[in-house]
Specification:
Helices cover about 70% and strands about 0% of the residues. It has about 240 residues and is an all-alpha fold.
Length: about 240
């Protein structure tokens, strides 16, 4: 059989492209065994178990929110005029105490995410695993956000409220807003404090989870098991 120059060139191109496909993706292709596919899915689940565990550990520690500028809970835009007025009046410590108390509440509530993340990992199908593995560096985080946000919000509300009471968030909020009434042009501010802290706690969790996922996908030092190195080591 004659092979023309163009056919030979095309063949070389296909072979070269195939050589550049990550091993983890090849294992997901047609013709691979169920064992290969299962190993890839297991590697992804292991990565998620490690990533979510690290996320809960980091955010649930003291200063896990407060000292991390990427997730620190700040005053909402609606209360910025309050902050400005209080700092101008020399009462900035009231604002600082309030911000700290919100972050302490988030840190105490964060561990509640652990069991919900674990349940979501166990429910991942092979189709989900394939989509996550071939997605971007935070594809798993986006999957988790879509699958667990409502459940996490419901689960977080009681511990956040409890932690806010322990941290004195409500009292500090009242102190901050009542202090505004004594200032010229002061006015009341209607604001759902519980909802704000719950949502910011969720935002912080998913931000850190995205960082952890990206490290496992791209940083060999974060691929701490043989299975992780096999699945992600040739990307």
């Amino acid at each position: 059989m004659k092979i023309t120059f163009l056919t030979f060139t095309a063949l070389l191109t296909v072979l070269a492209a195939s050589a550049q496909i990550p091993d983890s993706l090849k294992r997901l292709g047609a013709g691979r065994t169920a064992s290969d596919s299962g190993q890839t899915a297991s590697g992804l689940k292991q990565a998620l178990e490690i990533g979510t565990k690290n996320t809960v550990s980091l955010t649930g520690a003291k200063d896990g929110f407060f000292r991390d500028e990427a997730i620190k809970i700040l005053l909402p835009e609606k209360l910025r005029p309050v902050e400005k007025a209080l700092r101008f009046a020399g009462q900035g410590q009231i604002v600082d105490d309030f911000v700290l108390s919100m972050n302490r509440a988030a840190e105490k509530a964060a561990p509640a995410a652990g069991s919900i993340f674990n349940d979501a990992i166990q429910r991942i199908s092979f189709a989900d695993a394939r989509s996550i593995l071939t997605g971007g560096d935070t594809a798993a985080t986006m999957y988790f956000k879509g699958k667990t946000s409502d459940q996490l919000r419901t689960a977080f509300t009681p511990p956040v409220k409890s932690a806010m009471e322990q941290a004195g968030v409500t009292q500090r909020y009242k102190a901050m807003t009542s202090g505004l009434q004594t200032l010229p042009f002061g006015r009341s501010v209607n604001f759902d404090l519980d909802d704000y802290v719950v949502n910011k706690t969720l935002d912080g969790l998913f931000t850190v989870l995205g960082q952890e996922e990206k490290k496992i996908r791209t940083n060999p030092a974060a691929q701490v098991t043989p299975l992780l190195r096999q699945v992600f080591g040739h990307r």
